Amino acid sequence: MSRLDSMLRRLTAQRDGLNWAVYQISGMAGDVLDMGLGNGRTYDHLREILPDRRIWVMDRVLQCHPSSTPPAEDFLQGEAEPMLQKLAEGGPRIAFGHYDFGRGVKEEDVAEAARLSPLIAQVLLPGGLLISGQPLVGFEQISGPDTIAPDRYLFYRA
Ligand SMILES: C[S@@+](CC[C@H](N)C(=O)[O-])C[C@H]1O[C@@H](n2cnc3c(N)ncnc32)[C@H](O)[C@@H]1O
Hints:
α2 links the parallel β1 and β2 (55-59). By secondary structure, the chain is of the alpha/beta class. It has four helices and seven strands. A seven-stranded mixed beta sheet has the order 3-2-1-4-5-7-6, with helices on both faces. It has one domain: Rossmann fold (3-Layer(aba) Sandwich), CATH 3.40.50. It starts with a helix and ends with a strand.
């Protein structure tokens, strides 16, 4: 498969997973957390599909498209570990987390996701939903939407 085809499949799975999550959390109060602002594409999509939720977004750098710049009070700029610890200070508040950290080096990305998993668990509400491009550890893995091939995107409950 070409890298273009692979990227298209990943982004389609990401979009379908985010849309699916809206219905999964519809009966649950709580905020949303996008881990990895990057260009701001998933953050912008989350704003569109979850307009009534507070959406926290995390990244070590602010380098998104200007139209996707988050409000300062919702942007946690810094390394993931201290930012997750900061978010956890007020107790668990996240009903839905999207994990999109990583830089495309599989072994490093998998190791980082495993290292951050216990910190992510601290910010999630009981029964909260997580979707991720990398395997996370310590959560119950669940099935996602039928349109996404197993293991292309991963789905978890806290
Ligand atoms: C794949 S990009 C995110 C793409 C974004 N969701 C989008 O749709 O445009 C990953 C981002 O995660 C950030 N990142 C990766 N590891 C991080 C860490 N440990 N702490 C903070 N930010 C991190 C990188 O700076 C990068 O901007």
